[in-house]
């Protein structure tokens, strides 16, 4: 399908954009912005923000919509949290988003690494706000509790796609496990529960409504909804490009269900305008 005009984005060559890339390179850090080919990378980098990708850049899962490389990951980098702090200081960030590849090879799924990064940032920058976007840790309760105990401002766990597409698009994931995680996060005091998904895989309007209802019932306070963009010819094809007006209608529906913050648009991704979700703004 031909990509519509509203989805065409060019990478800039501005001082702010290049400064962020330079800091990331200097501290040997990954971002999901670069690994997943996020369409908002130019906007976020120009604003001096980035979503840090910890635990390497190799995922143990192979979802049919994702551009992140999959295979056998490298061992844990014990100095990663320290380098993350240096990068955040260099960029003078006040709101930090941390995510990771899925690490099914680790006993705790990487939960300990999230906790270490949160702790290191808090120790050096006590006033900083932290959002984490976590994998499912294979549903391990202890792993989820470790992240909750670290007390980030926002815990995001994406359901990614409508449940009817899980078998084809993310067979190693489990929709009910994801809802269970979100219910637990939603019950945690002083923590905002967040999730997100993409559309354009072949779902219908009822699929979208049911997914939003499930997230609302799980206690989600913030949600992001974006257009799926096929990374390569080997990935799942786009079945529909939703018009911005359709996203506006979906956002209106979600707000009516009680979500505190909703980002919905063709270029929206999990961390788009993340600081607003952390403040509960709409």
CATH architecture designation: Alpha-Beta Barrel
Q: Report the mean per-residue pLDDT as an integer.
A: 88
Strand arrangement in the largest pleated sheet: 1-2-3-4-5-6-7-8
CATH class type? Alpha Beta
Task: Give an overview in words.
With 282 residues, the protein is of the alpha/beta class. It has a single domain (5-279), classed as Aldolase class I (TIM Barrel, Alpha-Beta Barrel), CATH 3.20.20.70. Helix content is 37%, strand content 14%. It has eleven helices and eight strands. It has helices spanning 15-26, 32-35, 41-46, 80-91, 111-124, 141-149, 166-169, 175-186, 205-217, 244-256, 274-279; strands at residues 30-31, 51-54, 95-100, 129-133, 154-156, 192-199, 222-227, 261-265. The chain has an eight-stranded mixed beta sheet with strand order 1-2-3-4-5-6-7-8. β2 (51-54), α4 (80-91) and β3 form a beta-alpha-beta unit.
Question: Which labels suit this protein?
Answer:
14% strand; eight-stranded mixed β-sheet; TIM Barrel; 282 residues; alpha/beta
